[in-house]
From TrEMBL:
<protein>
    <recommendedName>
        <fullName>Bifunctional protein FolD</fullName>
        <ecNumber>1.5.1.5</ecNumber>
        <ecNumber>3.5.4.9</ecNumber>
    </recommendedName>
</protein>
<dbReference type="InterPro" id="IPR020631">
    <property type="entry name" value="THF_DH/CycHdrlase_NAD-bd_dom"/>
</dbReference>
<comment type="subunit">
    <text>Homodimer.</text>
</comment>
<comment type="function">
    <text>Catalyzes the oxidation of 5,10-methylenetetrahydrofolate to 5,10-methenyltetrahydrofolate and then the hydrolysis of 5,10-methenyltetrahydrofolate to 10-formyltetrahydrofolate.</text>
</comment>
<keyword id="KW-0658">Purine biosynthesis</keyword>
<dbReference type="InterPro" id="IPR046346">
    <property type="entry name" value="Aminoacid_DH-like_N_sf"/>
</dbReference>
<feature type="binding site">
    <location>
        <begin position="167"/>
        <end position="169"/>
    </location>
    <ligand>
        <name>NADP(+)</name>
    </ligand>
</feature>
<keyword id="KW-0028">Amino-acid biosynthesis</keyword>
<dbReference type="InterPro" id="IPR020630">
    <property type="entry name" value="THF_DH/CycHdrlase_cat_dom"/>
</dbReference>
<dbReference type="InterPro" id="IPR020867">
    <property type="entry name" value="THF_DH/CycHdrlase_CS"/>
</dbReference>
<keyword id="KW-0560">Oxidoreductase</keyword>
<feature type="domain" description="Tetrahydrofolate dehydrogenase/cyclohydrolase NAD(P)-binding">
    <location>
        <begin position="141"/>
        <end position="279"/>
    </location>
</feature>
<dbReference type="InterPro" id="IPR036291">
    <property type="entry name" value="NAD(P)-bd_dom_sf"/>
</dbReference>
<keyword id="KW-0521">NADP</keyword>
<keyword id="KW-0378">Hydrolase</keyword>
<dbReference type="InterPro" id="IPR000672">
    <property type="entry name" value="THF_DH/CycHdrlase"/>
</dbReference>
<dbReference type="Pfam" id="PF02882">
    <property type="entry name" value="THF_DHG_CYH_C"/>
</dbReference>
Length: 281
């Protein structure tokens, strides 16, 4: 068996085309353009690359962008104050705080300073609570939302399926598990310290790898015919799954890059337009 690739770039392109259409309609109706503000703390090269990519995608679909770059030595209070200014700014529809931030910053305090209506990356405690309770008052975490959208695009059934999520971060693993549980999947959460990880993976109909360890998930662990979503991105364009061996057993698999990553940005921009639309309703 050789797995078919789940082309996140192509699926994201369709989403971006839809977002571009929505931006145009919103501008014609309201006379203004949706705006996404980004907050970046420090000089991490990867973070700067990610923010630049998001700003470029904004430009491509017609969304305005506003950057707030802060020095690495900024305090938590200073970063929170910047977020507070953007919350109060009526021209801003969505706020993205790029993570990770420098270790001395209290990320949770910064995230939770974002108002519900502008939390288009779904990172606040309120967003997590709403996902846990099945409510839709806030926006979903973008990468998990992108994973679910990609599964839907490839007509992968979720109800009753056993999904193993490897990873427990508050912005990826945990919200992904909650969203899949909300779609009636049976979800097992594992992590890098799980004993017998291979056994859990071998029983999964769908594997979501989001642990941040290069090729931690071995190809021989994959159940024949399973669907493999690799949300990891490590140095050298390597995911969390040993791609070649896994592709020999899986039915569908995401490449790295070109799988989950493009979907994350597509969800972010779609939710920014939704935030703008909700302000007008």
């Amino acid at each position: 068996m050789t797995a078919a690739l789940m082309d996140g770039t192509a699926v994201a392109r369709r989403s971006l085309d839809d977002t571009r259409t929505r931006v145009s309609a919103y501008r014609e109706t309201t006379g203004r353009t949706p705006r996404l503000a980004t907050v970046l703390v420090g000089d991490d090269p990867a973070s700067h690359t990610y923010v630049r990519m998001k700003v470029n995608r904004c430009r491509q679909v017609g969304i305005d962008s506003l950057r707030r770059d802060l020095p690495a030595e900024s305090t938590t209070a200073q970063v929170v104050a910047t977020v507070d200014e953007l919350v109060a700014d009526e021209s801003v529809d969505g706020i993205l705080v790029q993570h990770p931030m420098p270790g001395h910053i209290d990320e949770r305090a910064v995230f939770d300073a974002i108002s519900r209506g502008k939390d288009v990356d779904g990172v606040t405690a309120n967003a997590f609570l709403d996902m846990a309770n099945g409510h839709e008052e806030t926006f979903a975490s973008c990468t998990p939302a992108g994973i679910v959208a990609l599964l839907d695009a490839y007509d992968v059934p979720l109800s009753g399926k056993h999904v193993v999520v490897i990873g427990r971060s508050s912005i990826l693993g945990k919200p992904a598990a909650l969203m899949l549980l909300g779609r009636d999947a049976t979800v097992t959460i594992c992590h890098s310290k799980t004993r017998g990880l291979a056994q859990f993976v071998s029983e999964a109909d769908i594997v979501v790898a989001a642990v941040g360890r290069p090729e931690l998930i071995r190809g021989e662990w994959i159940k024949p015919g399973a669907v493999v979503i690799d949300a990891g991105y490590n140095e050298g364009n390597v995911g969390d799954v040993a791609f070649g061996p896994a592709a020999e057993r899986a039915r569908l698999i995401t490449p790295v890059p070109g799988g989950v990553g493009p979907m994350t940005i597509a969800m972010l921009l779609a939710q920014t337009v939704s935030a703008a639309e909700q302000r007008e309703s």
